[in-house]
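Figure 6 in text form: structure in, sequence out.
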């Protein structure tokens, strides 16, 4: 029988990375991912993501959507047309499939995330 994934009962191994050099806009922030859940098919993941201040360009692949809710810190996402939105603690958003723009961490941030990846 499938069991609940209770984040507070887990201690996932952190994965560290940095934005790709060709996407950097400002800084070279370290990003930390704590993946608490990965579906058996590998098409849904959920966890906590943290990042230092900095900015980079993002381009979501077709079929990839992300929901997030900020726990602490501040970030700004600007689409390719220049429309920006800022998020702080308690704010939530969905980054849709095919989205392109800039992701900027204004203050060190931590957020809950859920990513769904399906065939385009």
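Output sequence:
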């Amino acid at each position: 029988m499938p069991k609940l994934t209770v984040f507070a009962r887990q201690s996932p191994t952190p994965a560290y990375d940095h934005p790709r050099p060709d996407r950097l806009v400002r800084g070279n922030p370290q990003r930390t991912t704590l993946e608490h859940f990965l579906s058996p098919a590998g098409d849904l993941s959920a966890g906590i993501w943290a990042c230092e201040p900095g900015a980079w360009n993002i381009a979501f692949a077709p079929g990839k959507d992300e929901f997030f809710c900020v726990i602490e810190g501040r970030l700004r996402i600007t689409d390719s047309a220049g429309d920006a939105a800022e998020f702080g603690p308690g704010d939530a958003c969905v980054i849709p499939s095919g989205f392109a723009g800039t992701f900027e961490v204004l203050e060190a941030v931590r957020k809950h995330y859920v990513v769904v990846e399906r065939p385009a």
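Caption detail: The domain at 21-105 is CATH 2.60.120.10 (Jelly Rolls).
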